[in-house]
What does this fold into?
Amino acid sequence: MVTIVLKIILCSGILLGLYHLFLAKEKTFTFNRYYLISALLFSLCIPFATIETKEAVEEIPSTVFVESIEKPVETQIVTPEENFDYTKALLIGYCIVSGILIFKIGYSIIKIKKLKGRKIKYQNRTVFLLKQDFAPFSFWNTIYLSETYFKDFKIEDSVFRHEEIHVKQKHSLDILFVEVLKAVFWINPLIWFYKKAMVNNHEFLADESVISQNKNIKKYQELILQEILKQQNLPLIHQFNFNNTKKRFIMMNNKNSKFANAKKYLAIPAFAALAVLFAERVYAKDDVEQKSNSKIAASSKNQSTTHSEAYRQFVKIIEKYNQIVKDQDYEKFSKEVPRDEQIQLADFYLKFNSKDIIETQVHVTYAEINREIPTSSQLNKFIDTKYNISLDGKVVENKVLKNYKNTDFYSVYILKVIPTNPDYGKYEYGVVLYTNSYAKKYNAAKNIRIGFKASDEELEFLQLRKDTITPKTTIDVKLVEIKDTYSDINSTSVRIVGGGTVEAGSTAVEGVAADLVPAEYPGGINELRKKVSKNFNSVIFGETNGLVRSTITFVVDKNGSIRDLKAEGENEKFNNEVLRVAKEANENVTWKPATKDGEPVAYRYNLPIAMQFTAYNKTQ
It folds into this structure.
């Protein structure tokens, strides 16, 4: 919000400066009027406009490896404290000031309406003859002047003509417009200067009209000087006399420069340049990402009964490591398969058709953070403490987001906190944010995720878990255990069972020191996987088709207890189910805490879960 306010002030300041530099001394009064109004509206709107542009991509060597999202936590994770909400207090204060200024507008209108006198019609205009000895002025569709000006049923022609122009050209609308803006956006001091420039220009317009009919400029100037002592303190009116008399007199005798018309056209490039400068930039997906998405979409639709060329190239590489694949040794795969071959395998896998994916014994893919830029309004909402914020894998206080604008972020996930979540009642939503720099490094590193097809024993295990009620259609499910590879750093695994995929495992440890021992589930991570797969109820997803993903995150504290258990994904039903089974798997369970330098430390896990649902007719 601070950024938006600064943009509004700066943009309005530049446009006002250009006005005084190029237009204020020219007799292009009608153009000047609409320029000032447009400048105010433009400066208020342009910070909320967006311009889609292509993001510059830095070249990062393929040998660079970045951290995984899962990491050890060596300090207490920050929990938003119940502090005094200064933001809310400032907002209340701001609204109070705006309310006072709006009240003043209303009071000024009432003050005008309560003036004593009588209405008459004069040359088809409404004229209000005042009992007080006021200088002539106009407001809305009425001309106000003292009865002393109405002699022999006539009004001095120059006086009437001047005020009639204010009424005819609806100058009161401009003044009301700028007064309302002053009340709502009083934090922008330049609006006061805009009003001064507008009122000046209105007087120039009226003077010009009078002089065009009455060529005696000197006599008209003398008439203005006679009224200087009769000014009224009514901010919404156009008075016949005006405190900046000297400027009016100079402008009456002024002539346009030979570049006056050319200066008007300079407004077009000025507004265009400021639009580019102050509009929000939203980065478009680059060609590589779009092509990648196209390939994935095409692969999912391809129902070919033959293997693709990519599959054949994939197999040629994998054949060199048959023993590793047979042993399903994740550690050896990440260490002994060269980095460049891992990348080749992932690239080939992107081009697989459905037959390739089903029959391959090993799955090699890229682990990436998907792009989803938050809007400015979303970012403002996230400052509310009902949102639990995770920024680049760390839980942070909401007020930290005041230091960012929406385009600083590459990705956002918003999750509803459900009753089964330990944070239910503390927060309404969980928000996961990744900055551009973090996501760019993570994705550019081409982190590899591998998976092996499950054994026959595991297939038999799933067969025993078939629902006792036999529906006409069933869901074919594969259990998958994720493993991301980062150079020679170990991570978890992918295990595929049956005809769909469930990913369940933790990724590599971020910045793991040699003396750090990760937290351990009783019986090992395989025991946790078994409990998750055993309790997962796939029957409730009977009408679901395609790949569904979620990620379970939690912290194992120094005592081996689980906290901050959350599920993040696009399918709320799937999130609820994986959160339920994860919670059940950790009931009455104490982990062996992680240690660093022999001392227990808190440790964060990320367990990706994905399930590929495929409905088919069951044959008896």
The first helix runs from residue 2 to 23. The two ends are 63 Å apart (CA to CA). Residues 522 and 589 are 8 Å apart (CA to CA).
